[in-house]
Amino acid sequence: MTKTLKYLVIGAGNGGKAMAAHLALMDRPVMLYNRTEQRIEVIKELGGIRLESFEGGPHGFGKLDRISSNMADVVPEANIIMVVVPSSAHADIAAHAAPHLRDGQIIVLHPGRTFGAIEFRQVLRNMGCTAEVIIAEAETFIYASRSEGPAEARIFRIKSAVPLAALPSTRTTEVLNALKDVYPEFINGRNVLYTGLNNMGAIFHPALTLLNSGRIESTAGDFRFYIDGVTHSTARVLEVLDRERVTVATSLGIQVRTAMEWLKMAYNVQGDDLYEAIHNQSGYYDIKAPKTLKHRYIFEDVPMSLVPIASIANRYGVSVRGIESIIRLACFIHRTDYWRRGRTLDKLGIGHLSVGEIKRFVDEGITPGE
């Protein structure tokens, strides 16, 4: 049954091209959408994407069924919609997809960052979308991948286990069953509070980028981001941010993984401290730093990951001075107000809810008064 499902990958960036090609190489019918036509011109000419990979990994030419920059051409035909764009674009994707969605479709955000599924649902409701769709989010992106050219992608590593949760969580098993033939790595992530607060990109990406800002600007990112960029000092900052994230989760009555536990789960690596564990992950050695500070590690991960975590902290009286410091540095460097642009609880429509009501919302999809 799963083989007959038609996939739509939204986004032709690093991750979207890798996912589309990999699905095609697994003999699944795959469509690819990208907002700008220019990014998919070469893919259209070739009819697909060439994928390179680690030794023994998926590789070859993935032929795609359709490539389009028009939502109306692809969204109605899809059974499973894989959204692989920076989470700062989730609201825009939801707004443009809303008129074309139909009952029974599954939408998966790769990843949701922090509360992406909640934001996606809220935008669909604001747009008057009545289609009965399932919205789910992955805790992290399943691939470590990069674009190798206009129609080429490379996968450095496929994560061993990636938690996934639907909104509401009662639909999670349904999503996992639909995906298990192509992505057995997805496991039950309990609910979107867990996937959102187990968001390791929030801890690793912004802080490492900002703390290495001088080196990024002076070398155009010509160094190994997770190896050269993670020194003993920067790793200690990451450990502080990680403790704050775990404390925020505790304020909601949930226990999330530490960064050390996540590295063990995702990559099967460990160490005496975070510095050592990161350096023991062989897949990180080939990943270069961002070439510029105008990068999703800041403009995505700060407003869509750190701001919602800080918003919860402020709502429930948790001190997160480290996280707030990283947000402020990002605001200074980009000369923008990420607090205003970010996912606050009020924007997500859950700012008025108690802890118990938030839990009922993510588990049952019910908010007070409904």
Quick rundown:
By secondary structure, the chain is α/β, with parallel strands linked by helices. The chain has 17 helices and twelve strands. It has two domains: 2-196, NAD(P)-binding Rossmann-like Domain (Rossmann fold, 3-Layer(aba) Sandwich), CATH 3.40.50; 201-364, N-(1-d-carboxylethyl)-l-norvaline Dehydrogenase, domain 2, CATH 1.10.1040.
What would you say this structure looks like, in words?
- The structure is a single chain.
- With 370 residues, this protein is an alpha/beta fold.
- The protein has two domains: 2-196, NAD(P)-binding Rossmann-like Domain (Rossmann fold), CATH 3.40.50; 201-364, N-(1-d-carboxylethyl)-l-norvaline Dehydrogenase, domain 2 (Orthogonal Bundle).
- The chain contains 17 helices and twelve strands.
- It has helices at residues 14-25, 41-46, 71-74, 90-97, 116-126, 172-179, 192-197, 201-211, 213-219, 232-251, 259-267, 274-279, 296-299, 301-316, 321-334, 338-341, 355-364, and strands at 7-10, 30-33, 48-53, 60-63, 66-68, 80-83, 106-109, 134-138, 143-149, 152-158, 162-167, 186-188.
- The chain has an eight-stranded mixed β-sheet with strand order 5-2-1-6-7-8-11-12, with helices on both faces. Strands 4-3-10-9 form a four-stranded mixed β-sheet.
- Helix 4 (90-97) packs parallel to helix 5 (116-126) and helix 8 (201-211) packs across helix 14.
- The longest helix has 20 residues, at 232-251.
- The model has no long low-confidence stretch (mean pLDDT 95).
